[in-house]
């Protein structure tokens, strides 16, 4: 069965009485080459446990199941569970969890499914756009033991993630992801590659989770508090925007001086290393 086709999706809708829920971001992928690119980029092998987020009717799950040792797919929509059982019937290495990925304890699932080798885990997904940032931050900040996260997201969000200092799109999300990961652009996906077509274009990124963060920080909480304050008022100079951390102005100015950063600069011009130096001097 070709799951990448409008006629199959319509057949499934009719047979299972399933209706696409716009509120759950149900835009199904129609381009097989994108699925291959995602699975190739994730470098899935028979030793891997893959966690898939939002399998939909199983188009990506099917390709992952062919390559991986084990697949756990988390799908929120109850009406898609019988569909997935049908489309993935030929595989016995797939388990579907009917739940909200933002509410399940992925760390616990990984420990249960993969007690021997917790690092041999990969996360993939064609995410509904509204959960992209929460799911990425959740995976990275809670230390979910995954080697990589290969996900489709709105193109504008991908651009924010890969942005460099000095660019208008460089912000707290760029710093957070680049702190934990090496980022690779996999493929751009136009809106007409989905059914129904969403209003925006997409892009797949692979986030390779590093053994240790890209910069050394003494206190991760302070580092991220500075990033949040700096970008919270990004038009203000650092000497002003950083005041919202609650740290006294003299201390901020002294730390900026020790780190060799002009207090008149704005957060969007700082590299991760400069944020780290500033945080460590405080
Ligand atoms: N992977 C399929 C594909 O590529 O065609 C479907 C992708 S569709 C953009 C997003 C999927 O995520 C839908 O099946 C939707 O029901 C599911 N979903 C939405 N919110 C979710 C959540 N919080 N937790 C788990 N799945 C969710």
Can you tell me about this structure?
With 282 residues, the protein is of the alpha/beta class. It has twelve helices and nine strands. The chain has helices spanning 6-16, 32-41, 59-67, 81-87, 106-113, 132-141, 155-162, 172-180, 220-232, 238-241, 249-258, 272-281, and strands spanning 28-29, 49-53, 70-75, 94-98, 121-126, 148-154, 181-189, 194-195, 202-209. The protein has a seven-stranded mixed sheet, with helices on both faces. Strands 1-8 form a two-stranded antiparallel ribbon. β3, α4 and β4 (94-98) form a beta-alpha-beta unit. The longest helix is centred in the last third of the chain and has 13 residues, at 220-232. The radius of gyration is 21 Å and the shape is elongated. The N and C termini lie far apart (60 Å). Residues 24-29, 53-56, 59-60, 74-77, 80, 100-102, 126, 128, 131 line the site of S-adenosylmethionine (SAM).
Fold topology:
Layout (H helix, E strand, L loop, with lengths): L5 H11 L11 E2 L2 H10 L7 E5 L5 H9 L2 E6 L5 H7 L6 E5 L7 H8 L7 E6 L5 H10 L6 E7 H8 L9 H9 E9 L4 E2 L6 E8 L10 H13 L5 H4 L7 H10 L13 H10 L1
Parallel strand pairs: 2-3, 2-5, 3-4, 5-6
Antiparallel strand pairs: 1-8, 6-9, 7-9
Helix pairs in contact: 6-8, 9-12, 11-12
The protein binds S-adenosylmethionine (SAM).
Main traits of this protein?
single chain; 282 residues; alpha/beta; seven-stranded mixed sheet; two-stranded antiparallel ribbon; 12 helices; elongated
Summarize the structure in short.
The chain is built from 12 helices and 9 strands. The chain has 282 residues and is α/β, with parallel strands linked by helices. The structure holds S-adenosylmethionine.
């Amino acid at each position: 069965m070709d799951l990448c086709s409008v006629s199959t999706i319509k057949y499934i809708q009719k047979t299972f009485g399933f209706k696409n829920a716009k509120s759950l971001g149900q835009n199904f992928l129609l381009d097989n080459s994108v699925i291959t690119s995602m699975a190739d980029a994730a470098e899935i092998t028979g030793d891997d446990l893959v966690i898939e987020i939002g399998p939909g009717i199983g188009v990506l799950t099917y390709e992952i199941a062919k390559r991986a040792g084990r697949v756990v797919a988390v799908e929120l929509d109850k009406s898609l569970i019988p569909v997935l059982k049908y489309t993935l019937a030929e595989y016995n290495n797939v388990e579907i969890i009917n739940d909200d990925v933002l509410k399940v304890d992925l760390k616990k699932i990984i420990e249960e499914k993969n007690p021997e080798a917790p690092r041999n885990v990969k996360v993939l997904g064609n995410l509904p756009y509204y959960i992209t940032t929460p799911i990425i931050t959740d995976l990275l900040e809670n230390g979910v033991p995954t080697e990589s996260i290969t996900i489709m997201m709105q193109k504008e969000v991908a651009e924010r993630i890969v942005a460099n200092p000095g660019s208008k799109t460089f912000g707290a999300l760029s710093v957070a992801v680049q702190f934990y990961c090496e980022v690779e652009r996999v493929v751009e996906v136009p809106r007409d590659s989905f059914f129904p077509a969403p209003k925006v274009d997409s892009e797949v990124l692979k986030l390779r989770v590093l053994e240790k963060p890209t910069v050394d920080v003494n206190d991760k909480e302070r580092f991220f508090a500075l990033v949040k304050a700096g970008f919270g008022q990004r038009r203000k100079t650092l000497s002003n925007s950083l005041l919202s951390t609650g740290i006294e102005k003299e201390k901020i100015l002294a730390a900026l001086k020790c780190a060799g950063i002009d207090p008149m600069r704005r957060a969007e011009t700082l590299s991760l290393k400069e944020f780290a130096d500033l945080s460590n001097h405080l």
